[in-house]
């Protein structure tokens, strides 16, 4: 096998691995969107049902701009920072970025759901 064949095989393997990473990343970013919607909707519903927001900054923003508007603004800032981080880190670490924001939002949504069910 020539040196060119090794290089070609290595490039093909790297391309296939990169394609798998990008496919996984797409699913992780979709998870971010689902977690965001879950958190926003359940927070809005919970507050309308009489629950109180525990985050003082969020409470202040809610009173100034409204619940949905404030949450979308805060989450938009987080996503903007995450996108900068995503393109800044090495490719093999990129999946950690959407996972790092989706998991806390998903957990917040689950907590909101459990509090709503206790009403």
UniProtKB/TrEMBL annotation:
The lineage of its organism: Archaea, Methanobacteriati, Methanobacteriota, Stenosarchaea group, Halobacteria. This is DUF5658 domain-containing protein. InterPro entries: DUF5658. Residues 31-108 form the DUF5658 domain. The keyword Chaperone does not apply. The chain crosses the membrane at residues 26-51, 72-89, 95-117. It holds the Pfam family DUF5658. It comes from the Archaea. Keywords: Membrane, Transmembrane, Transmembrane helix.
